Amino acid sequence: MILEIQTTPIDSRAVSWRPAADRGVTIVSGLRPAFRADRRGAENLERLFGDNALCVTSGQQPGLFTGPLFTLYKALSAVTLARECEAALGRPVVPVFWVAGDDHDFAEANHLAVLTGGNEVERIALPPRDPDGPSTPLYRERLGAAVASLMAALREHTPDTNFRGATLDWLARHYRPDSDMATAFGDALADLLGESGLVVFFPTHAAAKAQAAPWIIKALEHAADLDTALLARAAELESDGPVQVSIQPGNTLVMLDGEQGRDRLVIDPSGFRARRSGETFTLEQLREIASSTPERLSANVLLRPVVEAALLPTVGYVGGPGELAYYPQTAPVYDILGVTPQGVVPRWSARMIEARTRKTLDRYELRPEDLGTPDGQLESRLVGDALPDRAAQALQRMRAVLAEEFPPLVEASKQIDVTLEKPVEKARNQMDSTIDHAEKRIVARLKEHHAILLRQISAARNATFPEHKPQERVFNIVQYLAKYGPELLLDLERECAEWAKSLVST
């Protein structure tokens, strides 16, 4: 096998999940311009706006060149789980990927890492933002001229195969200097997984902003109640450990694009205040903003899934570890805003083991998880400082025999002829030297073997746990597509489909 795909569950709990047959939400036609889809995805988009349709969703903030592998795994999770739900429910279920372009964390989105031909992890990144500049949402962050040099760097670090040209052409179609990070990201995903049926949703599109605005305002109208309920919910959950999302008294769940970029609205005696810029707003002024320029308003992480559940007929959201951790905190938001929660299930997780890594694992009888141990632990287990016991004991016995038997031999020699003492002692020294030389040769060769082992372990670790993190959180799909071609997507989808079958209870 050239490439081995291993499912790696991100949640240890056994999940048995049955999608709800009726969500009570009908998607409005006004949302249609906010979607992108290609090929079979375009067919699914028609089905989504037809009668009786539901959807399975996932989502992620934009990432450079489609971001880390887990982003692709989220999308494939939505694709395969939607098929299982459709079979279980007997009605159309469409996979939808939510592009969280309102996010403003540029430092998290502006880079990716690849494994070079020398088995080193190489980071490729857009220039950093001015730390004192505004927190611009990623859907308004232009890629700029620097993206061309990043494409060149990517070409340098991807293997020269029959698939590299098509892979880089796919990226170049979308990651252009004049495009923004969210559009490039979403369009590239829609293109890549169009044949799989993925539909991509841009909540930052004007059509989506207009539909979400009433829910944003409703969250502000109930800001005080939400504040009290979320603090109480956090206190309840903290009995089992720290909560994922810190709840600060007075913080609303709404973000506003203001003088300092995307800014949190907090409860203020005058109504509301932008936390960073200090701008103040009455509720009526914010209603006017929602009506005239709704693109200025967005939901924070606890409000976002509630807005999704209000806009889309979502039977299940496929989330990562962080989302699974904070979702219990959202219960009061659904309740107070009167929205029925969608189901939330852990996404598919995987790692890819290439042939050279598998060879190293098999040679040293290792599991992939062994490569995730802290530096030095695995090496210490595999490489001892001393000679192997059998060799060390043999050398020790040889020296012991010389030490015990040579003195009597010298005395016997002297009795035969006194002049034999020095030649016999010289012979003893030569034997000592021969044993020392043999030991040095063994040690030297052992060091060579150790150096090879250390290089092999280092290469395998970089391929499997780059930067001491799971592969899916660091590497991008590009290096694998360039090496293995589009068939890889089908292999990943097949593995993910097995996960989806096991998830939906029968």
Give your account of this protein's structure.
With 506 residues, the protein is of the alpha/beta class. The chain folds into three domains: 26-204 and 470-501, no CATH class; 208-311 and 325-341, no CATH class; 362-466. The protein contains 18 helices and 15 strands. The protein has helices at 40-48, 69-89, 106-109, 146-157, 164-174, 181-192, 206-221, 223-237, 283-292, 304-311, 321-326, 331-337, 355-363, 377-382, 389-416, 421-464, 478-484, 487-503, and strands spanning 3-7, 35-37, 54-60, 93-99, 111-115, 121-125, 199-201, 251-258, 261-268, 271-274, 280-281, 297-299, 314-319, 343-346, 350-354. The strands form four sheets. The chain has a six-stranded mixed sheet with strand order 2-7-4-3-13-14. Strands 11-10-9-8-12 form a five-stranded antiparallel sheet. A two-stranded antiparallel sheet has the order 1-15. Strand 9 and strand 10 (271-274) form a beta hairpin. Helix 5 (164-174) runs antiparallel to helix 17 (478-484). It is elongated. The model has no long low-confidence stretch (mean pLDDT 90).
Features:
single chain, 506 residues, alpha/beta, 3 domains, six-stranded mixed β-sheet, 48% helix
What's this, in brief?
Helices cover 48% and strands 15% of the residues.
Domains counted in the coordinates: how many? 3
Across the major sheet, the strand order is 2-7-4-3-13-14
Class per helix and strand makeup:
alpha/beta
Largest sheet, strands/sense/barrel = 6 strands, mixed
The helix content is 40-55%
Tell how many strands the DSSP assignment holds.
15
Could you name the ranges where pLDDT drops below 50 across 5 or more consecutive residues?
A: none
Distance between the termini: 33 Å
